[in-house]
Every structure is written in C-alpha cells, then in structure tokens.
Write a structure and sequence with these properties.
Number of strands: 15
Order of helices and strands: EEEEEEEEEEHEHEEEHEHHHH
Structural class: alpha+beta
Distance between the termini: 65 Å
Strand order of the largest sheet: 13-12-14-11-15
Helix content: 10-25%
Number of helices: 7
Low-confidence stretches: 5-23
Mean pLDDT: 88
Radius of gyration: 22 Å
Shape: globular
Largest sheet: 5 strands, mixed
C-alpha cells in the first residue's frame, strides 16, 4: 500500500530531536505538548463547514527546551481536503504568526499520514497548530497522534558507511528455528534498509507502545507497520523502522529491524537494547485494551530474550524507566509486574525439572 505525496501546506506536528545512532529517541521522548490539548488530538470536521474557515486552532505549545527548525506530525486523516498548518509568533509583527513551509505530506490510502515542515532557521519559539476545511464532502475526525520538533541537521541516523551494495548478513536475523510464529519482513513487504546496519549483542530489552493506530485485524496491522517504517525512514531519516519487534492487538508478532543490530527506540540507550513495541495507544485518554493475545506474545518474546541472551529481570525495562516519556502508556506499564513474573519466575515445568535435578544430586542412586 503506497502513500500519496502532496506538496500542499498540510501539517502534522511531531517535534523530535534526533541524535546520532546510539541516541535516537523512540516515540514520545521529544513530543511537544499543547496547552489544553491531550494526545491523541481529535478534530471533527463536516461537509457543512464553510470552505476556507479554520475548524481548529490550538493554544501555543509549551516552550521547547531545545532549538529546532523542523516539525513532524503524524496521525489519521480520513479526508485529504484538510489543511494543517504550523506557525510561530512573528518577530516583526507581535500580534501575527509566521507559517512554516511544508516540505512533504505523505498520506496512505487508509488515511494514515505524516507531514514535515521547516522553519527556515533555528528557533525556540512555541508553535501553534491550525486546521482548515478546504471543502470536504464528508464528515469525520482528524486525529493527531504526535507533534515533534527536530533539528534537520540531526535527523539522519548515523550508520556504517559503505559504497558497495548492502545485503545484511543472515546471522543478524532471528533464526529460522525461532520457537514462536513471526511475520517476517518479506511477508509484510518491508522496505530495504537505507544504509548498513550496526551489529550489536542484545543484553537488555524494552517495551514500548506505538502511541498510534490500534489495528482491528491482521491486514490493518500490516498496513500500520508499513506506515511506521515509512515514517521512520522518510520523515525521521532513519535507516529502517526503529523497533526490532512489533505486536498487534491480535497477538501477531512482526519482525522489524534484525535482532542482531542496533535499533532506534530509546534516547541514548539503543546499543544492546532490543525494542518491542505494542501497536496502539495505552495511555489516557485513548487507553486501548491490552488483550490476552498481546500479553501472551510479549511474554513469549520476553522468554526468548531470557533464554537466548541470558537477559535478567533487571535488564527488562518499560520505556519510561529509561527515557523522558509516558511510553508504553499507563495501561501497559501497570502490567509490568505481571510481565516480569510470567517471563522470569520459574514456570511449573521448570520447577519440576529443577526439583528432580536437586533430588538426583542428594541421592545419586
């Protein structure tokens, strides 16, 4: 499913500051907050709206903590006849606003979209988001999942440099005899990495949520992972999707980056860190359901990390424990004690084997 590309002044605001390979942030670490608005921001529109009249205008955002010149936005846009704009207070006209220039808008057939805007120079001014109905023939809801600010010069992921054609070594991927079912990259039609990966040895793993669309079935989950990869590669400038695994609400496990390479999911903590992201938004006010299938699949992956890489319970994190973010949302974070128990506590069969082993040591006969 390929997106359409538009050069019209649409805006989705995602404010993130990217850093070198080891520092690339995951979802939520650099999201900017708007006063009186909570993500996901929902904006209703109607065919009865007067064409050209603004239907939404945010308050100014909280003051950014770093300089930026780029704004990224991603969400769901069910109708293309909407104009999203990002602006900042004008330095020459205190009562006016200067609009950012839209560089690109990519909208997929299912309405998932991202947009990228540029200020022209570094600034630290708060931003404002506005939406205008350009003549929609239907009614619906525009959803903004995140707005991040970035420095364009730092967006691109630093990688190994190679001028030769790159084919990742098969040893970097999850082996064919992995003890669980997985949808491989080829099966969800993943794009190739833009640059060579950097190998690593997994020593920890981190749970995330995508803080976006909640797929209702396998087909929607495939479309969502395709969108996320496109957003990470072409908006953020990363070589590939940032996560190593993604799990749908139906429990499908998708292969992201190869498990044997550095990902892009936690600021300053990517080497050796395997990122597992649950599709959906598990934080108020969205708070999508944590299904039994999610729990089962995540525990399966967690046990694989424990058994294959000797990862201990002290090396399993929720994103918010090692990053400035609400990720993986209150809903998933509340399940951390349950996850730790199911993954790391001895299971009944393991306890029985251990007991038999101890008995044999006490009584060699």
């Amino acid at each position: 499913m390929m997106p359409t590309v538009s050069k019209s002044p649409f805006l989705s605001v995602l404010v993130m500051f990217s850093f070198p390979l080891a520092a690339l942030a995951g979802e939520g670490e650099n999201t900017i907050e708007f006063k009186n608005s909570v993500y996901p921001i929902t904006i209703n529109f109607s065919a009865n709206d007067k064409t050209g009249t603004p239907i939404f205008e945010s308050k100014l955002s909280e003051p950014p903590s770093c300089d930026y010149d780029t704004v990224l936005v991603q969400g769901e846009m069910p109708d293309p006849d909407l104009l999203l704009e990002i602006s900042i207070q004008s330095k020459t006209q205190p009562a006016g606003f200067d609009k950012f220039r839209q560089l690109v808008l990519r909208r997929f057939p299912n309405g998932r979209f991202w947009a990228k805007y540029q200020a022209g120079q570094l600034t630290r001014q708060p931003v404002k988001l506005s939406v205008t109905n350009l003549g929609s023939k239907s009614s619906g809801t525009l959803i903004i999942y995140s707005v991040e600010l970035a420095k364009e010069a730092l967006l691109k992921e630093e990688t190994l440099v190679s001028t030769a054609p790159y084919t990742p070594d098969a040893s970097l991927y999850l082996p064919d005899n992995a003890p669980f079912k997985i949808t491989r990259r080829a099966d969800w039609k993943a794009a190739a990495p833009k640059e060579p990966y950097t190998p690593h040895s997994p020593v920890i793993f981190t749970i995330h949520h995508t803080a976006g669309h909640y797929p209702k079935n396998y087909s929607e989950a495939v479309a969502e992972i395709q969108f996320i990869q496109d957003y990470h590669q072409n908006a953020k400038g990363w070589i590939d999707i940032g996560y190593h695994f993604l799990i749908s609400p139906q429990g499908d496990i998708f292969e992201g980056r190869p498990i044997g390479v550095v990902g892009a999911h936690v600021l300053y903590r990517n080497p050796g860190n395997v990122g597992v992201s649950i599709m959906g938004n598990y934080h108020p006010p969205a708070s999508t359901p944590v299904t039994p299938e999610i729990v089962s699949s995540f525990v399966t992956l967690g046990r694989y990390m424990k058994d294959t890489y000797a990862v201990s319970v002290s090396s399993f994190y929720a994103h918010r424990e090692i990053g400035q973010t609400d990720c993986p949302g209150d809903g998933l974070y509340a399940r951390m004690p349950e996850f730790k128990g199911l993954i790391f506590a001895p299971q009944p069969a393991e306890t029985k084997v251990l007991r038999q082993l101890l008995d044999s040591i006490k009584d060699p006969d």
